[in-house]
């Protein structure tokens, strides 16, 4: 199904939680306007729920490196965070393989993008002036954390977002990153480091 620029713009206004690129991508899957609108409504509702989730204030990412006979050392990440409502969350199962790129930042970007679309959606109108390398604001898309850019980008990205970054563990087979926002996030970090 072909859409004009005006139709895409109108759909973008109607479905505020979907990016222009998502709408353009989906239009090719449907032969009728009714089918496309039905899918956009469903995807917009799912995205709206994610964007309305309480914002994170404290994030821990642990990366364990495991040796693969084919690809060498590959990172496997798990992430835990507390949101502003005081709820704790945990997810695991993030991993990347292959060679020729920065796997560490790729697995961290995968975990962040999967869980914090609400944080990224909240900055969609933030000025791109002085935007650090490693966060993407492509025209027609919502912002996202970029993988393969090197972990040195992430402290700068989180500082730009108004967060603090720490790396309390760094070894050949294990890395730990902490990102926290405001006094409450710093207090959580201090309490967890004491435990």
Helix-strand layout with pairing:
Blueprint: H1 5-14, H2 20-27, H3 33-51, E1 56-68, E2 72-83, E3 88-95, H4 103-115, H5 117-122, E4 135-136, E5 144-145, H6 153-160, E6 163-170, E7 174-181, H7 182-194
Antiparallel strand pairs: 1-2, 1-7, 2-3, 4-5, 6-7
Any overview of this molecule?
The chain has 195 residues and is of the alpha+beta class. It has two domains: 5-51; 56-194, no CATH class. It is 39% helix and 27% strand. The chain is built from seven helices and seven strands; from the N terminus they run αααβββααββαββα. The chain has helices at 5-14, 20-27, 33-51, 103-115, 117-122, 153-160, 182-194, and strands spanning 56-68, 72-83, 88-95, 135-136, 144-145, 163-170, 174-181. Strands 3-2-1-7-6 form a five-stranded antiparallel beta sheet. Strands 4-5 form a two-stranded antiparallel sheet. Strand 2 and strand 3 form a beta hairpin. The longest helix is centred in the N-terminal third of the chain and has 19 residues, at 33-51. The radius of gyration is 19 Å and the shape is globular. The mean pLDDT is 89.
Please describe the structure with a list of short key phrases separated by commas or semicolons:
195 residues; alpha+beta; 5-stranded antiparallel beta sheet; 7 strands; globular
